[in-house]
Amino acid sequence: MHKENLRTHNTKWFYASILVVIIAAFTVLGARADTVATDFEGFTLGSVNGQDGWSMTGSYDVAVVNNTYGYTSFGSKSLRISNAATSGSFGDQTFSKSLVNEAGETTADNGGMSGGTRQTYFEASWDFASTVPGSEQVGLSITASPDRGDGARMSWIQMADTSTGLAVNFYDFEHQSPADCNYPGPSWRYTELVNNLDRTKPHNIKVTMQFIDGINNDIVKVYIDGNLVHTGLSWEDYFVDCESNPSRTVDSLLFRASGTAASGTSGNGFLIDNVQTFSGIIPSTVVVSGNNMNGWWIYEEVASARAGFAYGPATPPLGKGSAFIETIDDTNSMLIGTLNYAGTRLDAISTLQYSTYQDLSTDANLATTLQLHVDYDITDANTAWQGRLVFEPYNSGTVTHGVWQTWDALAGKWWASGAPGNTVCPIGSPCTWAEVLSNFPNAGIWTGNNGQVLFKGGDTTAGNWVNFLGYVDNFQIAVDGSPSTNTIYDFEPTCALVQGNTYTFSPDAGSANTVTVDVQTLGTIDCMVVNQTNINHPDATANMTDPYYWTLTAYDSSGNAASGYSLDLTFPHQVGTEPKACYSPGALGGYGWDCTGTQTDNGTTVTREAVDHLSDWAIGYKVGPTAINLTNLNARQSNSLVLPVVLAAVILSFAGIIGLRRKRA
Question: What is the pTM of this model?
Answer without folding.
Answer: 0.76
